[in-house]
Design brief:
- The chain has 181 residues and is mostly beta strands.
- The chain is built from no helices and 13 strands.
- The strands form 2 sheets. It has a 7-stranded antiparallel sheet with strand order 1-2-13-4-9-10-11, with no helix packed on it. It has a 6-stranded antiparallel sheet with strand order 3-12-5-6-7-8, with no helix packed on it.
- It starts with a strand and ends with a strand.
Length: 181
């Protein structure tokens, strides 16, 4: 937790403090992930204000929310704002290990009609188990992005929630978060 003045811009609906995660020395290849909660949690919603970058100097750079993180399987799902030349949000699963970069569930969400100016934006993900599938209903600044279903054999069926930041290059990317619920 740092003073709000440390963030690139103040969040009008924030308090004096803001959450920060950062792989400052890129020892984890620029990825910073913080998760919390019961590993057996399922059918929940996470929402929060996330500072998002546009065409960051380090190239690939994005922040977002994590759901169904399970360190016993090494897999988590994240919704991130990837506002570089691709101008998209992405919902996909990932490995905690940097040795494996496989995505068995991946959705690119076009951001052409969204406000993608660098700054504070609200993300929300509702995650639910439906039979042998997991559905992810995603929102950006209060607007529905869509519902995406993972029916894969290695799908997440429960897990913790949290925040995510990634920045290519030696300095990683500071991820700022507030009003998480």
């Amino acid at each position: 937790i740092v003073d709000m003045s440390a963030a690139p811009a103040a969040l009008a609906t924030g308090g004096a403090k803001v959450g920060l995660i950062h792989d400052a020395d890129a020892s984890y290849t620029g990825i910073a992930t913080a998760i919390i909660g019961d590993i057996n949690s399922m059918n929940y919603t996470i929402e929060g204000d996330v500072y998002m970058y546009t065409n960051h100097d380090s190239g690939s750079a994005y922040t977002g929310l994590v759901v169904y993180a399970d360190t016993s399987t090494g897999v988590y799902v994240k919704l991130v704002a990837d506002f570089d030349a691709n101008n998209r949000l992405r919902l996909y699963n990932n490995q905690f290990s940097m040795a494996t970069f496989s995505y068995s569930f991946s959705n690119s969400i076009d951001a052409t009609d969204l406000d993608t100016v660098a700054g504070w934006h609200n993300l929300k993900v509702e995650v639910k188990n439906v039979g042998d599938s997991t559905s992810y209903t995603c929102y950006y600044d209060g607007g529905l992005l869509g519902t995406y279903v993972d029916s894969g054999t290695d799908r997440g069926a429960h897990g913790q929630w949290g925040v995510f930041a990634f920045g290519g290059g030696a300095a990683g990317l500071p991820g700022y978060f507030d009003n998480l619920k």
